Amino acid sequence: MANMDDERMRQGADTADVWLRSVVRSIDEVFGDGHARANPELVAAMLPASASDFRTTMLTASVDRLADAIHSGLSNMG
Predict the structure, then answer these.
(1) How confident is the chain (78 residues) per 10-residue block, as mean pLDDT?
(2) pLDDT (0 to 100) of residue 37
(3) Cβ–Cβ contacts within 10 Å for residue 47, how many?
(4) H-helix or E-strand spanning residue 73
(5) With contact defined as beta carbons under 8 Å apart, do 63 and 69 qualify?
């Protein structure tokens, strides 16, 4: 059990690292090199947006899988 908990802890940190690097890269691509470093409040504002988008994507995928399973189950009944 401890190994799974350790893995989840690392996954959270790894995900945050990926999002942070992606946000910084995106800001610098739009506004120029160094803009993200000079505007940490912009980086901080974009991180929750990344998390929200991820949650929405995962929820949508789960609902799609559930709808497919229900459809398949109903099709097999008839």
Answers:
(1) 74 87 96 98 93 90 94 86
(2) 97
(3) 14
(4) helix 40-77
(5) no
